[in-house]
Design brief:
Layout (H helix, E strand, L loop, with lengths): L1 H32 L2 H11 L12 H16 L3 E2 L6 E11 L4 E5 L5 E4 L5 E3 L6 E9 L5 E2 L4 E2 L10 E5 L17 H10 L4 E5 L27 E4 L1 H7 L7 H11 L5 E11 L1 E16 L10 E7 L5 E2 L3 E2 L3 H19 L8 E7 L2 H4 L1 H8 L8 E7 L8 E4 L5 H13 L17 H5 L4 E6 L18 H19 L12
Parallel strand pairs: 6-9, 9-10, 10-11, 14-17, 14-18, 18-20
Antiparallel strand pairs: 1-13, 2-13, 3-4, 3-12, 5-11, 6-12, 7-8, 13-17, 15-16, 19-20
Helix pairs in contact: 1-7, 2-7, 2-12, 7-12, 10-12
Length: 498
């Protein structure tokens, strides 16, 4: 009997050593398959001019989605969409055509033309217009008489273009929230007072002044197709104020110090020409694939490894926003993590859903569509790992540690073995495309780099600005973390939202 028990124990030890050896080999092969040069090749393709900034609903986005679907197919992954690898959804879409012009005309009728991309850009959901009209500065563009604040009180903006701060005040009125600072909300307020267009400008007294950015985040409501919306840079704004006797900084200080409106009519007029074609519902797609696990029980549990594929597109056939860090870096990472698993015949226990989301820049549309139309029951998803803006910066930060501490610790332990570049800063959970999962009670990790947003939504978000060495380390950390989870070295924890 003792001999039998000894043999059984020996067999168990040999099996354990064999399994450990196999797992060590698998994770080593997987990590070695993740290479910065291959990652960057995919980033370079996704951020190229031919794809035009990958706006969801555009031909460029569809080309990128098909490319990634073909890559999944080459790995023999199982399609997880409505039609092959594609899960379709509808999004708002606005195509900004040519010409796209802005000029200032002073009281002496001297005209100054401004350059698209540097001096101004269109908001993603600008309306069309071909007009010349006087300009009025209207503070933060807020009309909230119920809060005791109205930038449009005491000034006539009928038939005028209004210039307003893009953000809301940093202070509050009686503890009340200002609402959103979405362009639609401020455009509605301006149009309701008779304005014919709007110029957004960043607040000059901020610690970090935002330059003109590409953005398609517009907020709720109907599209005003005949109301131009532009974002102008500080110098352009100062030129419009040239004959007013004020600088933009003085105007902001006057409002912020008194917490009262300070709106003025300007001597300068704006000449605006925008041609936009709006579509309320345009088809786009998430790209989704499954790598099935091998364990008879655990294969019915899943982890989601995801990133958004879209960015903010192009304007007037003249400028485009490459979105190399945001988020060609994350999309490329998902593909190469899939290759590290599938290409090395890793015998995972749990199954993995690889997903590239559409419409993140519009308001997380693709991720919300996924959780509301999941390919598997949501309660079978053990964790969601999100990769967003992971190739520019100087260290690694992972969100989700606040309420998914056990999951976060898996990543922290793996980082100690690999790069030792993970900072302690974290947040409860969710963020960007992880948010819909977190709101459904699924533990999430959000992989990002610190100081990652230097070129966020600028035309300078190009592959040349990335940090390939750091990028490779983040992707390897995500792979190692995912490997631990799919091998069963983690059980889903309950998260309680605070």
């Amino acid at each position: 009997m003792k001999k039998f028990l000894l043999l059984a124990l020996l067999a168990c030890i040999i099996t354990t050593i064999s399994n450990y050896s196999q797992q060590t080999q698998e994770i080593t092969h997987g990590l070695s398959a993740i290479d910065k040069n291959k990652l960057m090749q995919t980033v370079e393709y996704l951020s190229c001019k031919d794809l035009g900034g990958r706006l969801s609903g555009s031909a460029g986005y569809d080309t990128a989605a098909k490319f990634m679907a073909d890559q999944f197919a080459s790995l023999n992954l199982t399609p997880a969409g409505d039609d092959g690898f594609m899960q379709y959804l509808n999004v708002e879409y606005n195509e900004i055509g040519s010409p796209c012009r802005l000029a200032a005309i002073n009281s002496n009728l001297t005209k100054t033309e401004y350059k698209l991309g540097n001096d101004f850009v269109c908001r993603g959901f600008t309306g069309s217009g071909d007009l010349t009209a006087p300009v009025a500065f209207c503070g933060y563009g807020i009309s909230s008489p119920d809060l005791g604040y109205d930038d449009y009180s005491g000034i006539d903006v009928n038939g005028k273009v209004v210039m307003v701060f893009k953000s809301n005040p940093a202070w509050e009125m009686g503890g009340n929230n200002w609402g959103t600072n979405y362009p639609r909300e401020k455009s509605f307020a301006a149009a309701n007072h008779g304005a014919v267009g709007i110029l957004f400008v960043s607040t000059p007294n901020s610690d970090q002044v935002q330059k003109t950015i590409g953005s398609v985040l517009a907020g709720d409501g109907a599209q005003n197709e005949l109301f131009p919306q532009l974002h102008i840079d500080l110098q352009t704004a100062e030129n419009f104020l040239n004959e007013s006797g004020f600088t933009l900084s003085q105007l902001q200080s006057a409002i912020d110090d008194s917490k009262k409106p300070f709106s003025i009519s300007l001597a300068t007029s704006a000449e605006i020409e925008v041609h936009a074609v709006y579509t309320k519902e345009r088809r786009t797609e998430n790209v989704m694939a499954i790598l099935e696990g091998s364990d008879p029980l655990l294969k019915n549990q899943y982890i989601v490894i995801g990133a958004h594929l879209d960015h903010v597109g192009s304007q007037a056939n003249k400028i485009f926003f490459p979105g190399a860090n945001d988020n060609a870096s994350g999309a490329s990472a998902v593909l190469h993590i899939a290759k590290a698993f599938a290409g090395n015949n890793v015998k995972i226990k749990r199954s993995i859903i690889f997903v590239l989301f559409a419409g993140e820049e519009l308001g997380l549309n693709g991720a919300f569509h996924f959780v509301n139309n999941p390919p598997v029951p949501l309660n079978s998803i053990t964790a969601m790992l999100n990769l967003d803006c992971i190739a520019h910066g100087d260290s690694i930060m992972i969100g989700g540690g606040g309420l998914s501490k056990k999951l976060w610790n898996v990543a922290f332990e793996e980082d100690k073995k690999l790069a030792n570049m993970m900072v302690n800063n974290t947040w409860p959970g969710g963020g960007a495309d992880a948010t819909p999962f977190f709101e459904k009670g699924i533990p999430t990790l959000y992989f990002v780099t610190t100081n990652s947003y230097t070129h966020l939504h600028y035309m300078t978000d190009t592959p040349e600005t990335l940090n390939p060495e750091l990028y490779e380390k983040v992707v390897k950390l995500c792979y190692a973390t995912a490997y631990r989870i799919v091998m069963g070295d983690y059980t889903r924890e309950e998260i309680y939202h605070q």
